[in-house]
Give the backbone structure.
Amino acid sequence: MTHPPARATPKRPRDPRLDFFRGVAMFIILLSHVPGNVWALWIPARFGFSDATEIFVFCSGMASAMAFGAVFAARGWLMGAARVAFRVWQVYWAHVGVFLLTVALLVAIDLNGWGIEGRVYIREPYVVPFFEETGPTLVGLLTLTYVPGLFDILPMYLAILAMIPVAMALHRAGGMPAVGAGMALSWGLATLAGVGFVEGGPPAQGWSALVQWMNLPADPQGVRTWFFNPFAWQLVFFTGFAFGMGWLKPPPRSRALAWAAAAVLLLSTPFAWFKIHEGFFIPHGSEAHLAIAGLRAEIEPLWVKTWFGALRYLHFLALAYLAWMAVGPRGRLLDEGLTVREPPQATRRLRAALAAPVALLTAPYAYIDAIRALAPALDAFVLAHFPLFGDGAGLIALIHLAALITLVWNAAPARARDFVARDLVVAAAPVIRKVGTQSLAVFMTSIPLSQMMGLALDHLGRGVWTVAAVNLTGFALLIATAYGAAWFKRHPWRAPAPAPRDVQRDGTAQRLQAAE
């Protein structure tokens, strides 16, 4: 008796926006993991509550819907759950492997004397327990009860992946309302567990003890919890999953919603950007500084990262909506580029006339380090005669940057502006999408790579050009990883062999083929 062939699982077309923004997240995550990287001061996390982690988790939710949803639909719940379990298995070993590789690299740096004098790289905080208590931490690594900083995204990701069969069962039972209720309940209980953990500390007492099991231990002593609590972070993952499955419909493209989203981003900036709430741009200790810092402390449960505070969710939704609007329907602008609207010549001249003196007058504040290195006497003079050089220097440097960009943009010929807005965007978008399609391989590479980039900066210094060179080299290596992983996944060795050359010459090719 022959069995009917298994039904093929239909593949859904990939959304170009999904891979593009996941690729952007991969570059941002690399920057944030490089020790002492000043470029990390300009990533989205510095200006708002959400950061690249939300982008990665949301896009991974959408990608999981496309990858696993069809299996659940075509092969049933059990086969869908098996497919998810296989992916969890892959991510688990990716986590273990990338940790051991990174630790081995740090050991190699110390053993071979590659580091800078006086620094012991295996004394970095996230790997110290592995060498001081190797036995318990090794067992903890394999049981996910030892999850050090820098290696905390993949455990959260695999734990959330394991919840997909639960979400599918809830949807089968009660549709999207049941899934939404489950997401909200899990997030709410995790938030309560977080409040109890912060206020009472371990061991928790009273009501908080009932949900403390949701605070998964991150070290053998149980002092720390997972930095990304999966029971809370599933909220953003399953939001993306619901969009990917078609359970949620995209919001309307509305100018009013765009303005509302922009307002959310703007209003959150004073409480998220350290330059403001730590008193760099406003006088430290002033009433304004104390009010902002005090309110930020009061609302900490709403923006805390570990338990995915509600303001992080709101901030991410606002940012995602503006990004979704910016790339156009189905990401059309990623393929076509942006259209530059040419202002009247008089407007361009006025902009240049206003920007030029601003750029000139703010230049000393923008190039503090260069002045200090090249002309110490001038540096001392400026410090003595310009009181804003201290706390106000950072804000003035931003004004200088804006004026300089305005000046250069207006002075550039139309063809150059069109090249940046259209040709460069069209050329870069497919490369960024390629990084997004291979996010697991790229992320695994980025962790040890970030430590090697930090080592390079230790030796080369952290000047403007050295930081740029190291970061751009890191970007290039991530891109190479993505293209290399894609090439291997195509299984090129399975392709038909090319026709042998010089078959007519002496028959050698025929004899070789026959021997094979």
Observations:
- Confidence is low (pLDDT under 50) at residues 1-6, 511-516.
- The two ends are 35 Å apart (CA to CA).
